[in-house]
């Protein structure tokens, strides 16, 4: 059973509570550990490009450092949609056949594994470049005209700033969705049984990158309640190609 279906099956009763400051802004110090953040990200499949040997394809982008020096920064393209990754690979094969030749392929890993890979100390740390479609950014900006960009994730928030909490395994969690339509499906499900609960709720959007920064640096205990819910279309993409639900995978390394 995937994340969205688990939430739908467990969403009775519901609670609107908690006032986490999920938007961008000043961030205090110390919160979830690297391992705890990675564990939350493990529920989210991420799509990457592999070379014929099965290693991650990492781009080296040239940037200027101090005193005019030029350095190469290793950048990993990360997709939250498998079809987007396939489209990118098709275009890249034409533009850069040497790196993205016929043997390159799309694969998936847990986002938490990529997050941890990016935390490894190196002379030049690995940067994760989240690839977001213009349509997704435009949709986020319809909800929030000040949306700064990045991977949009969605929550349900009350008029007083409280977030929707749902029960899971005898505790309350705060679901954060990678798909607006999946969140709206949950709200519709709740509304059929208890319309008063969702009457004052509205969909809010924030960048995944800002959420991660706050999880890493904010000492608010409530951040431990966050439950990341992957896009159901990403789950279906994997199922359609493997015939099974996503299971744990580690990122192949160079």
From TrEMBL:
This is Uncharacterized protein. It comes from Vasconcelosia minhoensis LEGE 07310. GO terms for biological process: protein transport. Pfam families: Tic22.
């Amino acid at each position: 059973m995937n994340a969205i279906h688990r939430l739908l099956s467990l969403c009775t009763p519901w609670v609107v509570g908690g006032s986490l400051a999920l938007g961008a802004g000043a961030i205090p110090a110390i919160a979830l550990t690297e391992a705890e953040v990675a564990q939350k990200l493990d529920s989210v499949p991420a799509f990457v490009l592999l070379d014929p040997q099965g290693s991650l394809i990492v781009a080296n982008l040239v940037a200027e450092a101090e005193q005019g020096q030029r350095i190469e920064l290793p950048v990993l393209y990360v997709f939250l949609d498998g079809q987007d990754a396939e489209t990118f690979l098709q275009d890249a094969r034409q533009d850069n056949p040497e790196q993205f030749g016929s043997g390159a392929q799309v694969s998936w890993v847990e986002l938490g594994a990529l997050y941890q890979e990016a935390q490894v100390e190196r002379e030049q740390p690995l940067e994760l470049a989240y690839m977001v479609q213009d349509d997704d950014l435009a949709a986020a900006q319809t909800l929030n005209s000040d949306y700064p960009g990045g991977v949009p994730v969605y929550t349900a928030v009350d008029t007083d700033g409280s977030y929707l909490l749902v029960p899971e395994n005898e505790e309350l969690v705060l679901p954060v969705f990678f798909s607006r339509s999946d969140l709206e499906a949950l709200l519709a499900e709740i509304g059929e049984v208890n319309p008063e609960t969702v009457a004052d709720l509205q969909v809010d959007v924030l960048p995944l990158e800002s959420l991660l920064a706050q999880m890493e640096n904010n000492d608010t205990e409530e951040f431990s309640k966050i439950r990341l819910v992957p896009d159901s279309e990403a789950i279906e993409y994997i199922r359609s190609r493997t015939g099974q639900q996503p299971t744990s995978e580690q990122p192949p390394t160079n």
